[in-house]
């Protein structure tokens, strides 16, 4: 792993009751992700890939450019934080995936996003 690949990913998820309709099998979750650059060179987040699994084991794949409409540059020692959302059909599920990053030399690499739970009892501490 190159020096540029030293990244830290933290995730917090939260159930959004006001936007959910359990009787319609619609459960809305928000998640806030903090990406820290622990390396010595700047990186740019080019894209993302998500695997979202609901409580019944049904998987949905999502991929695209950037996050929340941005392809942020993250300088050494700094971080980028954003909040996005997911809608699943069950009161519990998981998300995992990776970000596609590019270093200053133009090399691309993936940073894994660890599995995190989407659940009604999820709270931000």
TrEMBL record:
GO terms for biological process: error-free translesion synthesis. This is Protein ApaG. Residues 1-125 form the ApaG domain. SUPFAM superfamilies: ApaG-like (SSF110069). The gene is apaG. It holds the Pfam family DUF525. It comes from Pantoea latae. Signal peptide: none annotated. PROSITE patterns: APAG (PS51087).
């Amino acid at each position: 792993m190159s020096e540029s690949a030293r990244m830290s990913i933290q995730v917090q998820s939260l159930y959004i009751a006001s936007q959910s309709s359990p009787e319609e099998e619609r459960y809305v979750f928000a998640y806030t992700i903090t990406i820290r650059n622990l390396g010595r060179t700047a990186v740019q987040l080019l894209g993302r890939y998500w695997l979202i699994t609901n409580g019944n084991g049904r998987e949905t794949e999502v991929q695209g450019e950037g996050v929340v409409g941005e392809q942020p540059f993250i300088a050494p020692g700094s971080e980028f934080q954003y909040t996005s959302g997911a809608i699943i059909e069950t009161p519990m599920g998981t998300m995992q995936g990776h970000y596609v990053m590019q270093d200053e030399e133009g090399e691309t690499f993936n940073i894994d996003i660890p599995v995190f739970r989407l659940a009604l009892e999820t709270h931000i501490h």
